[in-house]
Structure prediction request, 342 residues.
Amino acid sequence: MTEDIKKLQDKLKEVDIPEELKEKLDLLITRLERMSKFENYSSEYETLSRYINVISEYPWNKYSEDNLDLEHAKYVLDKNHFGINNVKERVLEYLAIMNLNRDQAAPIICFVGLQGIGKTTMSKSISEALGRKFIRISLGGMASVLEIRGQSKVNPDAEEGYIIKSIARAGTSNPIILLDEVDKISDEANLRSGIFAALLEILDPEQNTSFLDHYLDFPVDLSKAMFILTANNLGTISSALLDRLEIIRFSSYTDEEKIVIAKEYLLPKVYKETGLQQNLFKIDEDVWANIIRPLGYEAGIRELERTIMAIARKVAKQILLKEASSVVITNENLKAYLPERY
Prediction:
């Protein structure tokens, strides 16, 4: 027996994996041992070694414990989001059901709304409230269904699909997995239908207890993970998939709501990210409307956050170059800090 094969056997003894999978790997190692005298041993060893590494990194029996305290969840949602009370109410309702019936599978939520409206941050807030790990997978422009299902390990450069990778990265078998931009999957009909079919298998409680990734080639239980989807609209999503989704719609923010969000949520975030302190950089109360209005119609707040950050960068440069000891943004000097908008 070579030292390399012994390392693989020792590694298998250290990990907690299903017994059937362990038996399968023992057979593969025995086969590899028989091949050790042949020329292609090295490539076979590399293939099996990587496969065992992937198997070892997957959290087969690891789960985080949910915090289903509704008061805590409400606090987190209110802390992270202003307005959108209808969305927060729906989320709390689903968490209430999860609390009362802990054996029931988590709902498959689909947040629908224009870009920048807060769909991703709401998903992160649910993760924070529950105490689950959070993983985002972008479906927009996905080029192959194999990115979800994985590739057979017999192929050169084969690897597991995004679902298995994400759960391994999370380190628990019950993370929150955000499937982002489900409406932006490829325009190619065959590719889109294949990806929707894979998503159905992942999301359907009747099927996802034994999801088969082509690389792992062993059924995996996805039923404990919580999936959240996002979309700008529902027109391109298959009806079979829509039937399994709990749709929650985000409405556009008003100017008044944006001002509150800018002052109470975005500006403190900019302070933290730039290192600027409130005594170095302030924005007058009557300036906020003029910061928001030149943006034109924007349902969300993404561009608004970029605008505040752009102002902060100019302020930071002035302070470091000793051109100013502190800056207060007023209607009179606003144009100097946002010249591209005036």
User: Anything to note?
Assistant: Strands lie at 109-112, 134-138, 176-180, 211-212, 219-220, 226-231, 246-249, 281-283, 327-329. The mean pLDDT is 87. The first strand starts at residue 109 and ends at 112.
